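Why do we bother with holo predictions? Because pocket geometry can differ from the apo form. Keep that in mind while you read this record for pyridoxal-5'-phosphate.
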Amino acid sequence: MMNFISTRGGGEPKTFEDVLLAGLAPDGGLYLPTEFPALDLAALKGKSYTEIAHAVMYPFVEGCIDADDFRAIIKETYGSDTFRHKDTVPLHPLKDNLYILEQFYGPTIAFKDVALQLLGRLFQHVLSKRNEHVTIVGATSGDTGSAAIEGCLHCDHLDIFILHPKDRVSDVQRKQMTTVQAPNVHNIAIEGTFDDCQNMVKAMFNDHDFRDEINMSAVNSINWARIMAQIVYYVTSALELGAPDKPVTYIVPTGNFGNVFAAYCARKMGVPINLVVATNRNDVLTCFFETGEMKANGVVPTISPSMDIEISSNFERYLFDLLGQDAAALSNVMNEFKGSGMFAVTPEQLAQAQKDFGAQRASDDEMLATMKSIYDDTGYILDPHTAVGVKVALDIMGDTDGAVVALATAHPSKFPDAVEKAIGIRPALPDHLSDLFERKERMSELPNNLQTVQNFVRNGIKI
Ligand SMILES: *Cc1c(COP(=O)(O)O)cnc(C)c1O
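The structure, written out:
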């Protein structure tokens, strides 16, 4: 059975089940498996997405989830009822050696579905086995909320409360959350900002009586199971492009370092791929890979809002490796960062980091120009997050051997204003969402007041 440890070194090794339900480790660290099993790439060539998903993920869940049960969960998660493409996360050849890895065929048309559709089903499986009920409380600035709701709506062993800042998410994003009619789904529009929402969720976690009373849990981006689910599409697409015999380079638009950390895990499992981090103007990650210094500098709003972050939560997992898996050293660095808003690594560590990842950035103007040039050139419509990666891909293609893959993390119709600004066309929502604006909304509006929201949660739990 696989063991999991905290990056900060506290506590006993944990099982997959513990790590799934806990999310964050009690010492504030992130969970990592104690080993990354090597994949038999030759045996996986030509296999389907669900077969490869089983091979990649089963070693992590073995001993907690029965092999046949896991196979059934994967089939339901990645089958055509959930992901509206036969290849689940397909490769689209764009031009020359450039491919787009389309991650937007899930219910909320963004890449978070790939992980959260699985996470909801894993919660349901484990909770029904234990006959337990949990209450998930989360804050969203847009994408995560709807993907979490869609992942959890069929779980009768949990209630999910999602806080969003009132009038500060896009109409599509709000409707995707508030038109879900499942009785265990509760949307709360908070009179405040995203930070207010997030601070309130943190305060609820820190109120231990309350946390225990409602059996509070989270599905946020630091949950190991989300990373695990994201490893799969790097394996499927790299094999399709001829790995391990041919070089493949991935450009990953990132904010919280979740998507690209999964790519790094695929590499640890034996898939030889090159990785480039692509950020927007909120470029704390790109600056780190350039200078070896990480500095929290505040957030500026961009047209790729799902990458507008100040602190990149999953970066800690990579830093653990970079610091030689020294949990005490990592804890010191994280405490320093928390205190002063910055830290630096040694020149040797920076050199290693630059070997592990390339890193580049794109401004709003560059995103718009890339969307326009790709549309004029190929007729393909990029969403603004995808455009960050494609901008970087076009810059490096001349110097790169083999296939270059840019990840498409959202469908363009999810960000119609930016697309219209770039190419003068408002892309239509896919069929399963075409009546989204006629659907009835259901949400509660609450003041930015902790007690009021806690009472609302207490009273709303279905059991
Ligand atoms: C969440 C998100 C990202 C960033 O993902 P990370 O896990 O932070 O790397 C990029 N694009 C879209 C559309 C997203 O929703």
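The chain has a mean pLDDT of 95.
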